Structure formats: structure tokens, C-alpha cells
Amino acid sequence: MIAGQEATMNPTGAAFQPELIELMKIVLDDATAMLPEAKRTSTMKAEIASQILACAAKGERDPMVLKTSALLALVDCTHYSHDISPERRVV
Q: DSSP letters along the chain, please?
């Protein structure tokens, strides 16, 4: 770790550097913006953030992979997937 920079711990014990935290914030904002406006709730944002954190904790750093993984997790949720036609679910 670079002197003067602190890592942030998440509940799983993974430490995130400030640069990664900033990247995850951008990915969260981008993923949230892709949702229909009516679905941009704090609950949905928390679900997306949780998935991004889980992927990052496993070592993923590619913003597209983080975003895709988070959005696919939402599609798999039964309370959201009914809003998306099966044709649109295919990635």
C-alpha cells in the first residue's frame, strides 16, 4: 500500500484501494443509469453495489465485467426479471 493511502475493508474482509473504490462508484452509476427510471431505487442500487463489491472482492477489475455481472444478477432476481422479455435477457 502506498504511504498515506488507506484501504477500505468491506464485510467480507476484502480491502479496496481508493482507486478501486472510485472505479466501483463509476460502475455503479453507469449500471444504475441503464435501468428504467422507475427501477432506479435505493434498493436496486444497493443490489447492484453488492454484486459489484462481490466481484471486486474476487479480484475482478474490468469495469465492463463488473457492470455486466451486476446487471445480470438483477435480471436473475425474480422481482425484476419479469420486466425484461426473454429475448432481451440474452447477453
A: --TT--PEE-TTS-EE-HHHHHHHHHHHHHHHHTS-GGG--HHHHHHHHHHHHHHHHTT---HHHHHHHHHHHHHHSHHHHTTS-HHHH--
- Domain assignment present for residue 91? The answer is no
- The whole-number pLDDT of residue 51 equals 95
**How many domains is the chain built from?**
1
CA separation for the pair 27, 52 (Å, rounded): 8
Which residues of the chain, if any, have pLDDT below 50? 1-5, 9-10, 78, 80-81, 91
- The range of the structural domain enclosing residue 67 comes to 16-86
| pTM of the predicted protein model | 0.70
The half-sphere exposure of 20 on its side-chain side, counting CA atoms within 13 A, is 23
Domain membership of residue 67 (yes or no) is yes
